[in-house]
Amino acid sequence: MNYTAYKRLLDEILNEPNPAAPYDDAMYFNYTKLNRSRMNRWDKQLVLDDLLVSGLKQIAAPQHWIIITEPWCGDAAHIVPFLIQMAEQNQLITYDLQLRDREPFLIEHYLTRGTRSIPKLIVRNEAGNDIFDWGPRPQGAQELMDRMKADNADFETIKIALQNWYNQDKGASLCKELMVYF
Hints:
Elements: H1 3-15, H2 26-45, H3 50-57, E1 63-69, H4 74-87, E2 93-99, E3 120-125, E4 130-134, H5 139-150, H6 155-169, H7 172-179
């Protein structure tokens, strides 16, 4: 699906009086609501690094980007808007958003430390061969998550710390990490 369809999916979930699982669980529903708001904010204010934009515009061969995500994923709400903006910098880049928990379950081939962590970006060439994959979060956010888990922080504390990290970073780490590929 494209980004418009993905945002429409979030809206449909949020407007459904009796949403399907997992959104019938208040926790997942509320994450989705927060994530829709976060995506709206990033769509309005995100800024891509100029060197990254220059690199993206210099891509001379077709690429297809697959972004694996889910509406309830907090990291995805902070990352997917940036990935879409990146893809839109060059007409040779096409993309498709796929849901982790629906067929074709592509995530099973791109596990992170043995887990189905998202979001995940898979970049393929015209022949369908992987050029690289990235995800689920920038290194700084991952280090924060690892430290907090090692300290046995509760999920709510981790969630707030990651939210603060993304707000302060403003996508700079993501841009820097992906810049090495373009």
